[in-house]
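Fold this: 3-isopropylmalate dehydratase
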Amino acid sequence: MSETDYEDTNVKIITNDIKSVNPVLIEGFPGIGLVGNIASQQIIDELKMEYIGSIDSRHFPPIAVLYEGLINMAVRIYESQEHNILMIVSDIPVNPVVAYDISKAILEWAQSVKVKEIVSLAGIATMSEEHKVFGAATNTEMLERIKEKVELFQMGTISGISGSIMSECLVRHMPAISLLGSTRSQNPDPRAAAVVIDVLNILYGLNVNTESLIEQAEKIEIEMQRLAEDVRTTEQPVTPRKEFPMYG
């Protein structure tokens, strides 16, 4: 079986031979609200993307991911030849200390398989209840493509592995955009993932259904409300302790 490999002392990428020609690479690593991870997995499921490989590193935590009884790699790569898309999805966060090494490896591998552009999916914390998509790009051409579809950053930062990947794209002159779904908390936020997918659908002519994400969001919201009510009902008022005078 043909394989496309990248390996250095810190990171190893092994995939089957890539069938797509000048594909778009989308990545979704866990972060705020798990937006990138949730959105990526939804796209993989809806487009019935094929598992083609994985990314491993000695800096990753020593875990194996289980799904329906089968062992999976924690950071996986999928392909949809029909849509000309590659997808990297991760079930583990990347330690900031090794973010540069992972980003460098991803970009070198992406260039070796002739990826034409990269899309980074992540979350961003806001105080607003409304779910929006914020965007940024590595060049003016990519910015023109997204400016009517997202809220543009006038100033700010993109942290974590997503920020590191975008910086590496800039250095290597790889066209790239970052789509960040707004969320109010650290809890999983399928609604934020859904609005990010809506923008992707427009940009790349996809038809990824997000109804199941909205259903997940409603279940999570109901469960969070129930937990909050349980906490309130179990909290007992504290009776002030009576202080007795002390005599020496």
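The chain has a mean pLDDT of 89. Residues 211-234 form the longest helix (24 residues).
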